[in-house]
Amino acid sequence: MLRNLMEDIVSDALPSVLRKYPEVCTCTKCIIDIKAIALNNLKPQYTATENGEVYIKALNELDLQFKSDVTKELSHAIEIVSKSPRH
Ligand SMILES: [Zn+2]
Questions:
Q1: Centre of ligand 1 from the C-alpha of residue 29, in Å
Q2: Are 35 and 11 in contact, with CB atoms under 8 Å apart?
Q3: Total structural domains within the chain
């Protein structure tokens, strides 16, 4: 099975980024919009195996630049959705 690990990474990182934006709507539709916008701006991390998944996750946890890119894109996406929510 082919999976984009960036989807998991974005889902994991989103709650802590959302804490900085208490005014933003967190209904299912807005959350999906935020994830979609962020994922379109981040490089996908595809994996085909469980081992690959563990490896990429461990690698990414060590990479501060990578984490700050994810946080930056999520903040950007939250700002876009909070300005024009589609719900
Ligand atoms: Zn909403």
A1: 6
A2: yes
A3: 1
